[in-house]
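Researcher: Next sequence.
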Amino acid sequence: MKTYQLSEDQEQEIVIQWKELMVYQHPELKRLIHIPNGGSRHPAEAQKLRRMGVVPGVSDLFLPVARHGYHGIWIEMKRKHGGRLSPDQKDWIEGMREEGYKAERANGADEAIAILEEYLGI
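Model: Next structure:
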């Protein structure tokens, strides 16, 4: 039997759907944002975005809400099985940790949601 695996984008969409359901109970979740840094683009568009400040490796999700001594939390989304961090992503995560943020990799929506719930004390 073939097992279907969701893409990284689909996993992240589930996290945002969860956010939309939970935001009424936990209003701080309205600040959870996606950084549209990746994806394939026309070379001219990619060049324009670099001039505008797009930086390789920036994590997918950011919640600028301070908790547990952290300034906020960054989450790099990967699909449930098989996703790898690029060197730029590893560097971003380490740099954010050095700056006082919680920064995590999440394999799939369930893991990302669990990270957010733990961070927010839900």
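Model: Residues 8-120 form a domain with the Trna Endonuclease; Chain: A, domain 1 fold (CATH 3.40.1350.10). The chain has one domain: 8-120.
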